[in-house]
C-alpha cells in the first residue's frame, strides 16, 4: 500500500506500507518501510527491491499521525490512502492493527543509493520529546511581572476623598 503523496527533501513520493507475516505465522503487522519517489510508485518499477523470503525488520512502534482538516478521506476500495488509518489498513490487508516504522541509520549516501534503486528510505531511530521549558519560563515570568505591576498600581493609587475623611475622623 502507498500513502501519499508525501514530500521528502523537496521531492514528491509515497510511503510504502507492507503487511509483514510474523515468523509464528499467527499474525501480520503493518510496517511503514519508508519513502519512495513518485517515479517508483508501481511495483514493476522496483521489482528487484521487493522483499522476498524471510527478512528481519528493525523498527519502532509508533502512533501514526492524525489527519488535518484538509486531508481527504482514505479510499481503500481503490487503494488510495492519504493518511495512515491503522484500523482501516489492517482490515484492508487482514492484519493486526499494529504500526511499525522501519528505521535506518541517517546516512546521506545510503539514502541517495536507496532512492536510486527504489528501496524505501526509512526514518532515523530517534524519539522526539516535547520541550516546552522555555515557553513555561516566559509564561510564568510574564504572569509574575503582571501581578507585580497590578499590586504596585493598587498600593500607589492616590486615596479618594472618602478615604481621607475616614482617616481624619477621630470619633469612631
Can you tell me about this structure?
The protein has 172 residues and is α+β, with helices and mostly antiparallel strands. It has 4 helices and 5 strands; from the N terminus they run E-E-E-E-H-E-H-H-H. A 5-stranded mixed sheet has the order 1-2-3-5-4, covered by helices on one side. Strand 1 and strand 2 form a beta hairpin. The longest helix has 23 residues. It starts with a strand and ends with a helix. The mean pLDDT is 84.
Intertermini distance? 88 Å
- Percent of residues in helices comes to 25-40%
- Structural category is alpha+beta
Radius of gyration: 30 Å
Q: What is the general shape?
A: elongated
Sketch the topology as an H/E string, one letter per element: EEEEHEHHH
Biggest beta sheet summary? 5 strands, mixed
Tell me the number of helical segments per DSSP (H or I, 4 or more residues long).
4
Low-confidence residue ranges: none
Amino acid at each position: 500500500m502507498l500513502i501519499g503523496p508525501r514530500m521528502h527533501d523537496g521531492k514528491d513520493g509515497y510511503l510504502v506500507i507492507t503487511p509483514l507475516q510474523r515468523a509464528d505465522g499467527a499474525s501480520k503487522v503493518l510496517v511503514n518501510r519508508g519513502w519512495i519517489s513518485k517515479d517508483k510508485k508501481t511495483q514493476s518499477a522496483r521489482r528487484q527491491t521487493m522483499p522476498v523470503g524471510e527478512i528481519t525488520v528493525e523498527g519502532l512502534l509508533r502512533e501514526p499521525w492524525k489527519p488535518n482538516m484538509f486531508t481527504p478521506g482514505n479510499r481503500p476500495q481503490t487503494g488510495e490512502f492519504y493518511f495512515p488509518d491503522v484500523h482501516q489498513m489492517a482490515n484492508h490487508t487482514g492484519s493486526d492493527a499494529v504500526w511499525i516504522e522501519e528505521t535506518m541509520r541517517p546516512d546521506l549516501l545510503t539514502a541517495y543509493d536507496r532512492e536510486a534503486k527504489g528501496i524505501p528510505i526509512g526514518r532515523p531511530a530517534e524519539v522526539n520529546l516535547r520541550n516546552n521549558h522555555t515557553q513555561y519560563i516566559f509564561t510564568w515570568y510574564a504572569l509574575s511581572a503582571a501581578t507585580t505591576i497590578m499590586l504596585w498600581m493598587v498600593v500607589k493609587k492616590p486615596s479618594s476623598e472618602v478615604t481621607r475623611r475616614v482617616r481624619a475622623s477621630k470619633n469612631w
